[in-house]
């Protein structure tokens, strides 16, 4: 409250969830100081209107940079792969290429957004809410992140974070993969149908959803909650540029590893052939 008074900010002018958390003493002064600092930027001020971005930006001031890194690397590698695959038909099939890129951006966005660590500002659920809803509501967004002072999570709640994000990423993976295949299938010239390898759309989409829920889910939670928060940030917290560069290297390596794991997994379960 002293920080708010010193900055001339009234409690009533803050978002309701943040004001409630401050009144109940659920967040430390460092979070309030970060909020006031972020409010100086017009872009950050606009993003802080949205609860999900507000919780993530208050927990990690490099969240937007990490989001840009992941989506940027994804677009670059996906565009290269599309061109390599299509060559002279690249511009003729530009609509499908764009659809694939949009799906890739959505998947990359969710892979950063969902496992990102947060400052939980969510109010308690109603007393009439079911036990399962209450359990998942009280789970952290990242299973491995360090809880802010005054907050603690049990092992079961941390496992619940993996399960909840896994369910969401399964839906994202299935939807993105299914729609990308439908678009691609519609663009295939019927005259060359015999030359094109038939891809099992539904089984591949389900397999990709499982891959996102298990492999991608765990890898991105470990990157955000262990490698970045527990190792890189304590070492480089005073050197933001070096920290950003290391985060970029780690996330690029994670993306490359994910591509390798997907190919091995797809071949293992038989939805892609090994030459």
Plain-language structure description:
This protein has 275 residues and is mostly helical. 68% of the residues lie in helices and 0% in strands. The chain has eleven helices and no strands. About 3% of the residues have low confidence.
CA-to-CA gap between the ends? Answer: 65 Å
Largest sheet: none
Which percent band covers the strand fraction?
under 5%
**What general outline do the C-alpha atoms trace?**
globular
Please count the helical segments: 11
Query: Can you write the helix and strand succession as a string?
Result: HHHHHHHHHHH
Poorly predicted regions: 190-196
Mean of residue pLDDT values: 84
The number of distinct β-strands equals: 0
Q: What class would the helix/strand composition place it in?
A: mainly alpha
Give the SSE map.
Blueprint: H1 2-7, H2 16-23, H3 29-38, H4 42-47, H5 51-59, H6 63-86, H7 94-113, H8 131-137, H9 155-187, H10 201-236, H11 240-268
Helix pairs in contact: 6-7, 6-11, 7-9, 9-10, 10-11
């Amino acid at each position: 409250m002293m920080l708010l008074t010193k900055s001339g900010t009234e409690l009533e002018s803050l978002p309701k969830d943040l004001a409630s958390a401050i009144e109940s003493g659920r967040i430390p002064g460092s979070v309030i100081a970060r909020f006031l600092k972020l409010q100086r930027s017009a872009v950050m001020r606009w993003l802080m209107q949205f609860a999900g971005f507000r919780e993530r930006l208050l927990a990690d001031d490099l969240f937007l940079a990490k989001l840009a890194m992941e989506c940027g690397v994804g677009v670059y590698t996906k565009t290269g792969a599309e061109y390599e695959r299509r060559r002279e038909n690249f511009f003729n099939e530009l609509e499908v290429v764009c659809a694939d890129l949009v799906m890739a951006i959505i998947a990359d966005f969710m892979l950063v957004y969902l496992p990102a660590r947060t400052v939980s500002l969510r109010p308690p659920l109603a007393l009439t809410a079911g036990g399962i809803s209450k359990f998942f509501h009280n789970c952290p967004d990242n299973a491995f992140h360090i809880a802010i002072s005054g907050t603690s999570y049990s092992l079961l709640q941390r496992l619940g974070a993996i399960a909840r994000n896994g369910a969401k990423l399964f839906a994202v993976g299935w939807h993105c993969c299914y729609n990308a295949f439908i678009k691609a299938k519609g663009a295939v010239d019927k005259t060359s149908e015999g030359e094109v390898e038939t891809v099992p759309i539904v089984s591949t989409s389900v397999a990709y959803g499982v891959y996102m829920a298990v492999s991608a889910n765990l890898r991105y939670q470990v990157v955000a909650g262990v490698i970045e928060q527990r190792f890189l940030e304590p070492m480089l917290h005073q050197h933001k540029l070096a920290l950003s560069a290391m985060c970029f290297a780690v996330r690029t390596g994670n993306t490359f590893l994910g591509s390798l794991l997907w190919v091995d997994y797809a071949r293992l379960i038989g939805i892609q052939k090994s030459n």
